[in-house]
Write a structure and sequence with these properties.
about 270 residues; Rossmann fold; 2 domains; eight-stranded mixed β-sheet; AB_hydrolase_fold; Alpha/beta fold hydrolase
């Protein structure tokens, strides 16, 4: 869990988006990835709140946020933009943002759409090459067949690159139990949305300085997308975290926090 002041903000389509805030300093918005909620940030929270007024949101369809009648990635980008505008109004200026995995896609898209960001940091945003069509169809069928656990294991092993032994060790944890509900509600729709996302087109419209964090042990798609984004973004910096994978926000929080603090101090 992460502690702080709670606030609910109404998104463009009326969906309530829950946020929690703590710390002091320049405002920083955190946008988590898939199969989780704002609780994902509990490893980073203690480090980031030392230097920033940090706010984390539950993305729609999980945690204490609501969900719309119809899903689209555009609605997720709007959620991030609405929360960013609320923070900017309350802090009196643009905010920084950090997104992990599909949360990074949401931050990137919100920036391209004019969200009031000063600087943004992205940890391995996924794209179409992350989720091959055959895998999306298999995972969707697993969830539809009442097997979200199989879909989650398939994602972690085949897409994220974790070992079967690591995934097996996670099965009986409280984190895995919480993730199953999120997987059932959101994994198929988010994977489907990623098959059509055009990161290059989005990145071409982003004016802010961008930090691209890449795990040295991450799956190949992460490096491919990161390299491509550096050629499209107008102002980007890549930092590779050796010995770290896609889950660096969990496994190397101090290193991630140090890179973020350095970048956002600019």
């Amino acid at each position: 869990m992460i502690d702080g002041k709670e606030r609910t903000i109404e998104s463009a389509d009326g969906t309530p988006i829950w946020t929690v805030s703590a710390g002091a300093g320049p405002p920083l918005l955190l946008v988590h990835g898939g199969m989780t909620s704002s609780t994902r940030w509990h490893h980073l929270w203690q480090f980031l709140t030392l230097h920033h007024a940090v706010s984390a949101m539950d993305r729609r369809g999980r945690g204490r946020s609501g969900d719309g009648d119809q899903y689209s990635l555009t609605s997720e980008l709007q959620d991030v933009a609405v929360v960013a505008r609320d923070l900017a109004e309350r802090h009196g200026g643009p905010v920084d943002a950090f997104g992990h995995s599909i949360g990074a896609v949401c931050v990137l898209g919100a920036a391209a759409a004019g969200a009031p960001f000063r600087r943004i940091a992205l940890y391995e945003p996924p794209g179409p090459e992350t989720v091959p069509r055959q895998w999306v169809e298999r995972a969707t069928a697993m969830v539809a067949g009442g097997q979200p656990g199989r879909a989650m294991a398939s994602f972690l092993i085949e897409v994220i690159g974790l070992s079967p032994q690591t995934v097996a060790a996670m099965r009986d944890t409280s984190v895995a139990a919480d993730a199953l509900e999120v997987v059932a509600a959101t994994l198929p729709r988010e994977a489907e949305a990623l098959t059509a996302v055009d990161l290059d087109r989005i990145a071409d419209s982003v004016p802010q300085p961008v930090l691209l964090l890449l795990g040295g042990d991450s799956p190949g798609w992460a490096g491919t997308i990161t390299e491509r984004l550096t050629g499209t973004l107008s102002d980007s910096t890549v930092v590779t975290l050796d010995g770290v994978g896609h889950e660096g926000v969990d496994t190397a929080p101090q290193r991630v926090a140090a890179e973020l603090t350095t970048f956002f101090s600019g």
